[in-house]
Amino acid sequence: MATTTKRASIPERTLRTDRWWVPQLATAIGLLLFVGYSTWRAFDAADYYAAPYVSPFYSPCLAARCVPMKGGADWALIGGWWKLSPALLVLIFPLGFRLTCYYYRKAYYRAFWSSPPACAVAEPHARYSGETRFPLVLQNLHRYFFYLAVPVAGILTYDAVLGLRNPAGQWGHAGLGTLVLLANVALIWAYTLSCHSCRHIVGGRLKHFSKHPVRYRAWQFVGRLNRHHMLLAWCSLASVGLADLYVYLVASGAFADPRFF
Predict the structure, then answer these.
(1) Which UniProt keywords apply (predicted)?
(2) Is the pLDDT of residue 41 over 90?
(3) pTM value?
(4) In a domain, 6, yes or no
(5) 180 — alpha (psi -120 to 50), left (phi > 0) or beta?
(6) What is the pLDDT of residues 188-245, one digit of tens each?
(7) Dihedrals φ, ψ of 171, to 5°?
(8) 5 within some domain
(9) Are 121 and 20 spatial neighbours (Cβ–Cβ below 8 Å)?
């Protein structure tokens, strides 16, 4: 029986009869909404601190123009010459981590570039070079952005712990903002640790798991998180936006933070 390396000649773009384009449309809308909101907040440079809460978009605040944060660390490293929003100094790290993330690459390749539009749907591009050319070759920096995302998650954890104070700086208090920041940092850690690069760092380059039981258990844990990487990517994206929105509303005086004790 003769074989051929050519693709089957099917005139239709796809034989799928379902609404395969709906997930791609929903993905595009969701990403555009977040990009629009985060861009506005990043350049706004206002209402990002409501004692004791600081927006995750602005932490760590590295510019000299950052508002004084009572009880918080003085992260200011950049002098007064920096005229742009302090958020632009730190968002590059989590943004780079998410842009190069394996799931997000799949999401925006399909949603915006139709490469491919969906499974079993022909893509409109005549040529395909993968991620071997500029700028897509920069996607290979993902593992390095992971190293930068981990300390950022650690700093956001510190900020969430500081939420256990009242506006006067006294410990042993909690408000709705405390829960918002704690939930956000929990989702950010879950998303970060579920990263494929993290899974490789924990369990990669080993020939015998039996000789490395601790790394094996860690690899199993990260593997279980990795199975939910897509869900964690969306949940953490929503949580970081909602956390910033909450701090913005409290800082701008839209409402007072409800204190539980």
Answers:
(1) Membrane, Transmembrane, Transmembrane helix
(2) yes
(3) 0.88
(4) no
(5) alpha
(6) 999 999 999 999 999 988 888 999 999 999 999 999 999 999 999 999 999 999 999 9
(7) -80, 165
(8) no
(9) yes
- Residue 114 lies in domain: 21-120+134-251
199 within 8 A of 206, measured Cβ to Cβ: no
pLDDT-derived band at 89, boundaries 50, 70, 90 = confident
- pLDDT digit string (tens) for 44-69? 989 999 989 999 999 888 776 677 66
- Which residue's entry shows tokens 């899974």? 199
Please choose, from the candidates 158, 200, 197, the residue with its C-alpha nearest in 3D space to the C-alpha of residue 181.
158
In a domain, 99, yes or no: yes
31 neighbors 107 (Cβ within 8 angstroms): yes
Nearest to 150 by CA among 89, 190, 192: 192
Query: What's at 45, amino acid-wise?
Result: A
pLDDT tens for 161-183 read 999 988 777 888 889 999 999 99
Count of domains forming the chain: 1
User: DSSP characters for 154-179?
Assistant: HHHHHHHHHTTB-TTS-BS--BHHHH
On whether the CB atoms of residues 173 and 121 are closer than 8 A, the answer is no
CA terminus-to-terminus distance, the chain: 78
d(CA 7, CA 89): 48
What are the angstrom distances between the C-alpha of 76 and each of 58, 92, 158, 173? 12, 17, 16, 27
Judge whether 159 lies within some domain. yes
